[in-house]
Amino acid sequence: MLRQAFTDRMKQALKAGDARALSTTRLILAGLKDRDIAARGQGNPEGISETEIRRMLQAMIKQRRESIGLYEQGNRPDLAQQEREEIVVIESFLRRQLGLAEIEAVAVSIIAETGAAGIKDMSLVMAALRERYTGVVDFSQAGVIVKRLLS
Fold first, then answer.
1. Rg (CA), the chain
2. Predicted TM-score (pTM) of this structure
3. Sequence-separated (6 or more) residues with CB below 8 Å from residue 4
4. HEC letters along the chain
5. Could you tell me if 2 and 50 are in contact, meaning their C-beta atoms sit under 8 angstroms apart?
6. What's residue 58's pLDDT?
7. How far apart are CA 99 and CA 32, in angstroms?
8. Pairwise CA distance, residues 101 & 108, whole Å
9. Contact 113, 128 (CB under 8 A)
10. 137-143: long-range pairs with CB below 8 Å, 24+
11. Which residues have a Cβ under 8 Å from the Cβ of 59 and sit 6 or more positions away?
12. What is the structure's pLDDT at 30?
């Protein structure tokens, strides 16, 4: 599903003359190809799964957010804006991300469900979050929220 969406988006961007969407989609496809080759070397002829593709996209977004901070510190607003535009393109392939309040509500329910009592149970809660909400939760934000709730 996502693989086809990448190809379709690249064709749309090419027809529309959208250079940012085209270059970002090409970067995504290059990253996907690299990961597929690695997966084939490990005995997976199909390449990586949809879940792994979503993780790859989230990692690309995280990398760009870090770059934005560095570019802003280096007084390079043009490069920071380019990264923001790439994030918009990458996010268009992902499901809507949960907001902080939604993440907190989900974390509270999982804490109650698992019976987590303290910070030592954080890995249990995070594992349940990853199992159910991969692709819709920013786990760096979730980790901070879960830590605060369990403290």
1. 18
2. 0.69
3. none
4. CHHHHHHHHHHHHHHHCCHHHHHHHHHHHHHHHHHHHHHHHCCCCCCCCHHHHHHHHHHHHHHHHHHHHHHHHCCCHHHHHHHHHHHHHHHCCCCCCCCHHHHHHHHHHHHHHHCCCCHHHHHHHHHHHHHHHCCCCCHHHHHHHHHHHHC
5. yes
6. 85
7. 27
8. 11
9. yes
10. 137/97, 137/98, 137/103, 137/106, 138/58, 138/97, 138/103, 140/62, 141/100, 141/103, 142/103, 142/107
11. none
12. 95
Average pLDDT, integer, range 94-115: 88
Q: What pLDDT is recorded for position 79?
A: 96
What is the average per-residue pLDDT within 109-131?
A: 89
Taking the alpha carbons of 23, 51, 7, 17 in that order, is the dihedral positive or negative?
Answer: negative
Q: What is the phi-psi region of residue 134: left when phi exceeds 0, alpha when psi lies from -120 to 50, beta otherwise?
A: beta
Start-to-end C-alpha separation, the chain: 40
Rounded alpha-carbon distances, angstroms, from residue 67 to 23, 59, 81: 17, 12, 10
Go through the chain and tell me how many residues it has.
151
